[in-house]
Design a protein that fits this description.
The chain is 52% helix and 11% strand. With 205 residues, the protein is of the alpha/beta class. A 5-stranded parallel β-sheet has the order 2-3-1-4-5. 32% of the residues are buried.
């Protein structure tokens, strides 16, 4: 029994090791498709790294006084993307934090440029079946409000994955525990030179 306990302690220590002494110098920006786990993993990263956490979709809803669904329905996707761009730029100007972005945010060239200047981008990559299982638990996905969510997700994967691949880091977000994914993200960030490079103060203007 003592041997099993000691083994568990060593495993726990190894899981915590990537965070020890690692202090990112720029905002960690999580990108990827809906269902990739950006909010769930982001909250764990923020807690582990002692950083604030923001979700761009939540911030957009607060700024607009409407839900994402309502914004899409009342104003259209173009208006939503415009607000998303402005909200993310505002958040990136704040002190270092963890930021979970909406699935389409990284597709915008201006947003990608802002993230490159102020943050370090992490693509949480998940395959179609994993994404479909996760998104089926919620009914508030405007882009999936039709009869073939699998087909929509497959089309989004084909269109968006090549752009997500431009992220600084790529981490697989599969069916395993969220804490394990968070460990992989932290370990990758700790070895990423960009994460340790403070943004130019002029970029915040």
């Amino acid at each position: 029994m003592r041997r099993a306990v000691n083994l568990q302690l060593r495993q726990n220590a190894a899981s915590a090791a990537p965070a020890r002494g690692f202090v990112p110098q720029r905002t960690i920006v999580l990108v990827g498709l809906m269902g990739a786990g950006k909010t769930k993993i982001g909250r764990r990263l923020a807690s582990r790294l002692n950083l604030p956490f923001f979700d761009s979709d939540s911030e957009i809803e607060t700024a607009a006084g409407e839900s994402i669904e309502e914004i899409f329905r009342h104003h259209g996707e173009a208006a939503f993307r415009d607000g998303e761009r402005r909200v993310i730029a505002r958040l990136l100007a704040q002190p270092t934090h963890v930021l979970a972005t909406g699935g389409g945010a990284f597709m915008d060239a201006a947003t990608r440029m802002a993230i490159a200047r102020r943050g370090v981008s992490v693509w949480l990559r998940a395959d179609l079946d994993v994404l479909l299982t996760r998104v089926s638990r919620r009914s508030n996905r405007p882009l999936l409000q039709q009869s073939d969510p699998r087909g929509v997700l497959a089309a989004l994967i084909e269109r968006r994955h090549p752009i997500y691949a431009e992220a600084d880091l790529v981490i697989d977000s599969g069916e395993g525990p969220a804490e394990q994914t968070a460990n992989r993200v932290i370990a990758a960030l700790a070895g990423c030179a960009r994460a340790m490079l403070p943004p130019d103060p002029e970029d915040a203007r």
